[in-house]
Specification:
The complex is a heterodimer. Chain A is 29% helix and 18% strand. By secondary structure, chain A is α/β, with parallel strands linked by helices. The model of chain B has no long low-confidence stretch (mean pLDDT 96). Classes of the chains: A alpha/beta, B alpha/beta. The complex binds iron/sulfur cluster.
């Protein structure tokens, strides 16, 4: 298990707007690159400098329908391998939400995410469904991710999770 | 306890719970898993084999070779051969190689049961809703989880209810209903939600024609789709060899829908989705396509027996216009055989239709007969964005199979009612 003992994730917020398309997150031309190289191009469709600035553990904050558009799995992969620790958004496109969890990147639905500002220090507790905005001194509610899904996320995604379960038998 | 939607009840049952709340995430047992060549062993085979785990229940797993079959490029041959090797290695009892299009095979071979959950590595897995089952699309990585455990995690969705009231007018089919709703609700208008279709007009359709609604629910970005089970559904199931072992679910009268839409179809015209969006919809009398070079009756959406019958009723005894080519790819071999025996296919071929393999073909932009640069065509399939059926510079109109047949005869997008009495 990574992060703090309580399973919280802490980092600085990178705020994006509504309808962030997977084509902005990972432009199609990079589709066949390996994971580490994907990370160098993440968000290049909307902020070409993002990949150079993002720090391990940072938090991406979106508005409505984060990850809409094509169902490419390379979009959450790029974010994960760039070091993003969690994504918080008002809502997610269905396939992005599923793909992110399958590859071990936590995603939190938070209707109040609009109140978060660029650079805010956040501490998220996916299981409790709470996001603390340390900069603004506010507590936001999110939909919680159940323990069983967080186990998968912590294992690094579905395939490593299945492997772990297999080995522990 | 507040009333539950049919989707909630299906998920509750599959997860061994009394009830489930909207937004909750639960693990559910799946009734069947579908995988096809394009999103199958070629993409997940290595990871799957690295786990060394067996398939949870081979009798509930269907693998199809339909997207790249028969191949027109070497890369497709490779994908197909990896798919076949996987079927052999795993000794799969239900591998269908060129037998038909996955969603239709699932239904006609009895893998879809009311009240069950079906996962598939294809966005149109929602098709199963016409039989009262929840069809849910998952990615190739996720399918490894289903294959090895028989379970999938689901976030319990909200439901949108769409009712079509009144009698279906002459010349209209399920396709016209779904296009009308798409115009109104829009692409992505039902993200993460279930579309529940109903009303007198929907229930008057054949089960196959209802599939057009649940199939294209994915165009609204819906997670799944459902239609109530009635005697027609039961008859369809019997023919597919499904006698029992299922329990249909319905929405409680006091359950809360996320939204409701009601339409009166009494004056409905055939509807056309114009290039290059599925929600760019107009009644046929307002569409001026100019000459068309292609007319395509095909895909899991628009080449079922009901669609072929609709097309035949328009084209019988007529001829395809000079300058237009009519392509016809029945959705499965079984459908092709029935259409041949009952005299539905003959008149379409005699009119000039060119028979293509019973697979996805140009619906995925591969296979024979792709639309070329600058060409304009109409199809009974489900998607018309640029490049979907070949060249990125082609223009695709979408309509019912009857509308496609009428258009083939006229050489431009045309109203099937002209040929029906
Ligand atoms: S026919 Fe078209 S929509 Fe249907 S499964 Fe094949 S490619 Fe997908």
């Amino acid at each position: 298990m990574s992060g703090t003992a309580a399973g919280t994730l802490e980092g600085n917020a990178w705020v994006f707007g509504d309808n962030i398309d997977t084509g902005f997150i990972m432009p199609g031309t990079y589709g066949s690159l390996p994971d580490e190289e994907l990370a160098q191009h993440v968000m290049s469709g909307i902020d070409p400098e993002f990949a150079g600035k993002v720090q391990p553990g940072d938090i991406v904050v979106g508005g409505k329908m984060f990850g809409c558009g094509s169902s490419r799995e390379t979009a959450p992969r790029g974010l994960k391998f760039a070091g993003v620790g969690v994504i918080i958004a008002q809502s997610f496109a269905r396939t992005f939400f599923r793909n992110a969890i399958s590859i071990g990147l936590p995603v939190l639905i938070c209707p109040e995410a609009g109140a978060i500002e660029q650079g805010d220090r956040l501490r998220a507790d996916p299981i409790a469904g709470e996001i603390e905005n340390l900069t603004q001194g506010k507590l936001l509610q999110s939909e919680s991710l159940p323990d069983h899904l967080m186990e998968m996320v912590r294992a690094g995604g579905l395939v490593p999770y299945l492997r772990e379960r297999q080995q522990n038998k | 306890m507040a009333g539950q939607t049919a989707a909630q009840k299906i998920i509750a049952r599959a997860s061994g719970r009394e009830s489930v709340g909207i937004g909750e995430i639960v693990w559910a047992k799946v009734d069947a898993q579908l995988m096809h060549d394009n999103q199958g062993p070629y993409r997940m085979g290595k990871d799957f084999k690295s786990l060394g785990l067996p398939i949870w229940d081979k009798n509930k797993f269907v693998l199809t070779a339909d997207h790249h079959n028969p191949p027109t490029k070497d890369a497709q041959t490779k994908v197909l051969n990896i798919t076949r090797d996987f079927a052999r290695e795993q000794e799969l009892p239900h591998f269908y190689d060129g037998e038909g299009i996955c969603h239709i095979l699932m239904a006609e071979r009895g893998f879809v049961r009311p009240g069950g959950i079906l996962t598939g590595t294809d966005s149109h897995t929602t098709n199963a809703g016409a039989l009262g089952a929840m069809g849910i699309a998952v990615g190739p990585t996720e399918s490894i989880g289903v294959l090895t455990t028989g379970e999938v995690w689901l976030r319990v969705p909200e439901t949108i209810r769409i009712d079509f009231n009144g009698k279906m007018p002459l010349g209209t089919w399920g396709k016209d209903l779904v296009l009308l709703a798409l115009k109104d609700i829009g692409l992505d208008g039902a993200d993460y939600q279930v579309l529940e279709w109903g009303g007198e007009a929907v229930m008057s359709l054949s089960v196959e024609d209802r599939m057009t609604l649940t199939n294209m629910s994915t165009e609204f970005a819906a997670k799944s789709a459902l239609i109530e089970v009635d005697e027609k559904t039961e008859a369809y199931l019997r023919e597919a060899g499904v006698e029992d072992g299922w329990e249909a679910q319905t929405t409680d009268p006091d359950a809360a829908y996320a939204a409701r839409h009601d339409y009166d179809v009494s004056n409905l015209s055939p509807q056309i989705a114009c290039p290059h969006r599925m929600d760019n919809v107009f009644p046929v009398e307002e569409v001026d396509s100019g000459p068309i070079q292609r007319a395509h009756i095909g895909s899991c959406t628009g080449a079922k027996l009901a669609d072929l019958r609709a097309a035949a009723s328009v084209i019988k005894g007529r001829k395809v216009a000079l300058g237009t080519q009519l392509l016809i790819a029945p959705a499965s071999k079984a459908i092709m055989n029935k259409a041949w025996e009952e005299g539905t296919l003959g008149p379409i071929i005699e009119a000039g239709g060119v028979l293509l393999p019973t697979t996805c073909g140009i619906c995925t932009g591969t296979g024979l007969g792709q639309f070329g640069p600058g060409e304009v065509g109409i199809s009974s399939a489900n998607r018309n964005y640029k490049g979907r059926m070949g060249s990125i510079d082609a223009s695709i109109y979408l309509g019912s199979a009857a509308t496609v047949a009428a258009s083939a005869v006229k050489g431009e997008v045309a109203d099937p009612r002209e040929f029906l009495t």
